[in-house]
Amino acid sequence: MNDTNAQPSTLDLFMGKMLADMGAAMAGATVVMGDRLGLYVAMSEAGPVDAAHLARLTGTSERMVAEWLAAQATSGYVTYDPASGLFSLSPEQAMVFADEDSPVFLAGGYGTVASAWRDEPRIAEGYRNGRGLGWHERDPCLFCGTERFFRPSYRHHLVQSWLPALKGVTAKLEAGASVADVGCGHGASTLIMARAYPKSRFTGFDYHPASVATAREQAAREGLSDRVSFEVGAAQQVPAQGFDLACCFDCLHDMGDPAGAALRLHDALKPDGTLMVVEPLARDRLEDNMNPVGRVYYAASAMICTPASLNQPGQAGLGAQAGPGRLSAVIREGGFRDVRVAAETPFNMVLEARP
């Protein structure tokens, strides 16, 4: 290896970046642990604390918590006051780490990060053999992490702005419509819509039986089982029963045959029905996605989404940053004539398609 052309100043900058990234990668595990042990929530409720106080509140070891707090402070995840020796969460830090109802809550999404590390050996094998790694083969923390990462966006945007951005859809939902939520996972999106539109009926579909079981349990807890159901099945198994609205939340790019899925949903809709496809925010060119959100999504795509697609018949491998142009083309392959980007948030884009 020839390093004689390396520029010292450029190398220093790159090493600084890599040290920061290594620190972030190590700190990610402390975020998962802090979330699991309730440390962030306890700090948010208690105000400034030292290690002894936080350990008492959470039933944890004072010595271990002292080191965790130091790691959080050096990462900038909590605030440290040297004069008092106390640690606290600023309002902004609390929104990200302690408040699951916050639109910017991210701590739950670190379960997805953890799954990438836990499954890395099998993902690497999928790179060698081209078979990928299916969602059903993944560490269970992927399913909870994915739900908790996307749920804040769904909670704060789905009913408030995404559905209203679709032509005539909210009026149908208010009057009583039939809705299919394809790739529903744990059912977060399905149940949000069901709570908002009590006259409509909702059916969630997912090929992963454990996720469907979790969704059914949540619907029962919320008393929604009379008009919300969940079925085990892939997109190509959705019955052609005349839905007013079909939804794909952050899942079309994971499918092995997304065009085939679009075709099936086209046939499952009423003639005046609507397909809503929610996807990770992306532009059509790599160079336009070189930003913090694109960085997260490309890494997730390399470790989760593309391996999942290559594990299925079709092996389309769209990836999580396919962009509106490619996604629209795939949806049109399924027979939809009118496809447009109806809404965007910092993390998602919403495509509306009509037969």
Please sum up the structure shown.
The protein has 355 residues and is α/β, with parallel strands linked by helices. Helices cover 50% and strands 15% of the residues. It is globular, with a radius of gyration of 22 Å.
Q: What's the gyration radius in Å? A: 22 Å
| Mean pLDDT over the residues | 96
**What is the N-to-C order of secondary-structure elements (H for helix, E for strand)?**
HHHHEEHHHHHEHEHEEHEHHEE
Name the CATH class of the largest domain. Answer: Alpha Beta
First-residue to last-residue Cα separation = 57 Å
Shape designation: globular
Poorly predicted regions = none
What is the CATH architecture assignment of the largest domain?
Answer: 3-Layer(aba) Sandwich
Structural class: alpha/beta
Helix content: 40-55%
Count of discrete structural domains = 2
List the total number of helices. Answer: 14
The major beta sheet can be summarized as: 7 strands, mixed
Q: Find the CATH topology of the largest domain.
A: Rossmann fold
With strands numbered from the N-terminus, the spatial order across the biggest sheet is 5-4-3-6-7-9-8
Q: How large is the share of residues in beta strands?
A: 15-25%
Task: Give an overview of the whole structure.
With 355 residues, this protein is an alpha/beta fold. It folds into 2 domains: 8-98, Arc Repressor Mutant, subunit A; 110-354, 3-Layer(aba) Sandwich (Rossmann fold), CATH 3.40.50.150. Helix content is 50%, strand content 15%. The strands form 2 sheets. The chain has a 7-stranded mixed β-sheet, with helices on both faces. Strands 1-2 form a two-stranded antiparallel ribbon. β1 (79-81) and β2 (86-88) form a beta hairpin. α1 crosses α6, α3 packs across α4 (62-75) and α8 (141-162) runs parallel beside α10 (188-196). The relative contact order is 0.09.
